[in-house]
Amino acid sequence: MNTSRDSYSAAASAWQRGPAKVYDQLAEVLVDTCPGMLPGCRVLDLGAGTGAVSRAASARGATVVAADAAWGMLTADRHHRPPCVVADVGGLPFIGEVFDAVLASFVFNHVAHPVDGLAEAVRVTRPGGWVLASSFDADWTHPVKDVVDAVAARYGYAEPGWYTDLKTATSIAFGTTGAIADTLRKAGLVDVEVAERTVEIELRGAAELVAWRLGMAHMAPFVATLSPATQGRLTRDATTAVGPEPTPLRPVVLLARGRRPR
Ligand SMILES: C[S@@+](CC[C@H](N)C(=O)[O-])C[C@H]1O[C@@H](n2cnc3c(N)ncnc32)[C@H](O)[C@@H]1O
Questions:
Q1: pLDDT tens across 38-64, in order?
Q2: Which of 131, 172, 175, 241 has the greatest number of C-beta atoms within 10 Å?
Q3: How many CB atoms lie within 10 A of CB 236?
Q4: Is residue 240 within 8 Å of residue 148, measured between CB atoms?
Q5: What is the Cα–Cα distance from 154 to 230, expressed in whole angstroms?
Q6: Ligand 1 atom index nearest CA of 26
Q7: Is the CB of 134 under 6 A from ligand 1?
C-alpha cells in the first residue's frame, strides 16, 4: 500500500475491531467542545473514517454529512451512516457556507498542507460557524507502539513510507498548540483556541491495546496478507510481549477550534 488513502480503505474492518474503540472515545471529547452543537445543526464530519464523530454528533441531534478520502472507511457499517462523499480535504464538493460546524477528528495531522484543507473547511462553514480539529500532541507516545511494531517486524512487517512521513513530519507540524493555532489563523479562522487534554481511554488490557495497533491503517493491510493461523500467532505473540499489566492508554490530545468571521 503506497498511499495513506489505499491503506485506510483496506483497513476499515480491522479499524472497527480495534482503533474504533479508541477513536470513538476521542470523538466524544471533540464533539463536547463544539459550541452550538444543537439538535438540527448541520455538521460536516471531515476525515470521517468509520464514523466516530458522525455517531457522537448525531447522538446530540445534529444533521451530519461525512467526507473522507478513503472510500473503504466510508463504506464500513454503511447502512447506519449519514450521507457521505469521497473527498480530499483540499477540495470539498460542497457549495459555500452550508455547515454550522466542521469537525475534523485526527485528520489534519495526516495532511501535508493543512492550511489549504482548513481554508476549505472555512469556505463551507457559515459565517459565525465553527471549525474544530483534534490532533495528538507530537511528544505523546505509548510503549505498546514499539512493542507491537517489533513483534510484527518478526513476521515481515515493514513500515510504509506514508506512515514514516506522517510520524516524522506531518503529525509533528500539526502537533503543538502553537503550530495548530497558527495554522487555523492562516486558514482564516478567528477566536482561535487550542486546549491540551489528557484523555483516559477505557480499554480492556493487552488484547485491546494490540487490536488498536494491529488495526491501524499502516499495519492492518500487512496483517491481512497473513493466513488466519499466522494472524492468530502474531496477535498472541504481541499480547504476550505487551504483558499482563500494560501502561494505561492516556493520549495527550490537542483540541482546536476557531470561528469563521461573520
Ligand atoms: C486517524 S483516522 C480518523 C478517522 C475519524 N475521524 C475518527 O476519529 O475515527 C484519519 C482519517 O482521515 C482520512 N484522511 C487522511 N487524509 C485525508 C485527506 N487528505 N482528505 C480526506 N480525508 C483524509 C483517512 O482516510 C482516515 O479515515
A1: 899 999 999 999 999 999 999 999 999
A2: 131
A3: 13
A4: no
A5: 12
A6: 8
A7: no
Which domains does the chain show, CATH number per domain? Answer: 4-142+164-204+248-259 (3.40.50.150)
CB of 72 closer than 6 angstroms to any ligand 1 atom: no
pTM for the whole structure: 0.97
Residue 110 host element (H or E): none
pLDDT tens, 159-179? 999 999 999 999 999 999 999
Alpha helices for 42-160 (secondary structure H): 52-59, 71-75, 114-124, 143-154
Give the tens place of pLDDT for each residue, 75-86: 999 999 999 999
Query: Cβ neighbours of residue 152 under 8 Å, at least 6 residues apart?
Result: 214, 219, 222, 223, 234, 238
Smallest CA separation from ligand 1 atom 27, residue: 49
Q: How far apart are CA 117 and CA 58, in angstroms?
A: 24
> Is residue 106 lining ligand 1, measured as CB closer than 6 Å?
yes
CB burial string 128-157: b at 16+ within 10 A, e below: ebbbbbbbbbbeeebebeebbeebbeebeb
What would the DSSP string read from start to end of 133-199? EEEE-TT---HHHHHHHHHHHHTT----HHHHHIIIIIHHHTSSHHHHHHHHHHTT-EEEEEEEEE-
